[in-house]
Amino acid sequence: MIKQDYFERLVQDITKVLAKLIFNKDWKETLPLLEQAYISYLPFDRAEANSQPIANFMSWLLIEKKCQLPQIEALAELFFFEARQTHDQSDKEDYKMFLAKLLLLLEYAQQHSEVYSMEREDRINWIRQQLK
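Above: the chain's sequence. Below: its structure in token form.
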């Protein structure tokens, strides 16, 4: 029960952070908020997540970092936000790698969540289109 309450608060807090990020249009001002969200809610920072190779990404999250589904969902939200903000600014190969990681996160959440999300399904489809 305590664990469930913790994860519910985690999701609520990350949602508040994302709302702040969404309404701030300047990426240079937004980046510190994004970095803080990683440090506050996840057992790793943004640079560490971005540096993980795609082949080991999910095992790194689940086994090494012991992330649970709410943390995977929170990371997916942060990744999705970052993908939408940086798609014009980043190297195309790095961006595709980033999207591939995001797709892994969303597909994991889709498979393991007890709640079906049409928004998640839409995001998965959007990413698949971007990766073509």
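The mean pLDDT is 85.
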